[in-house]
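Side project, low priority. Logging it here so it doesn't get lost.
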Amino acid sequence: MPRPLELRGYPVVVRFIDSCRLPTPFGVFRMHGFEEPDTGREHVALTLGDVTDGAPVLGRTHSECLTGDALFSMRCDCGYQLEEALRSIAREGRGILLYLRQEGRGIGLLNKIRAYHLQDEGADTVEANERLGFAADLRDYSMCKDMLAHLGIHQLRLMTNNPKKVEALRELGIDVVERVSLQVGRNPHNEHYLDTKMSKMGHWLNTHQDDDAL
C-alpha cells in the first residue's frame, strides 16, 4: 500500500509561483500558488484585503477534502468549514485561507476511501486509519511558514477546533494570537465522526465560546 507523503520526516518547503484574482460567491479573493520543489505538490492561499499591515489576520489552514469540499459529502464537516471560513473572511473584509493538498488527514484519497469502507462496517475515523496502518492524523503544516512569510503575515487569528493544529503552527514559530471556533455542519451522517474527533482527538466541540484567547 503506498505510504502518504507526510511520512517523509523533513519540513515541507514551498516556493511561490504566481497569483491572480479569484471571484467567488463570498467575495473577490487573490489566489496565490505555491509548489513543493521536491515533490511537485501544489498548495494555494486565498487572501482578501490588506493582510500586510501588521495586525493579526483572521485565517484558516484547510486541508484538502475532495469529498467534502467538492462532492458535498455529509460524512465530515470539511466542506461546511471551508464555506464558513470564506464567509467569515468576507464579512471581516480581510483574511487568509491556506488550502493544503493533504487529503484524508494525510493518507490520500484512495486510502481515505478504504477508511470510509471500514467506517461503513462500524469502525470510527481513528480506528479506520489505524487498521490501515496509519496514525489518526498525519498532516504536516510546515509549508504554512513559507506561505505566510511570503504574504507578509506574522500573526493569525486561527479558525479551528483542533488544538493540535494550534500547537503545530506555534511550534513552527507562527504567532497564533487567538483561536476562533468554527463549528458548523453537524448532521446525522457525521455526528459519530465529530464525536470521535472530540473524544479521541481532543477537538474543541460543543462549546459556547466563539473566540478563545490563547
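Brief comment: The two ends are 40 Å apart (CA to CA).
Revisit when time allows.
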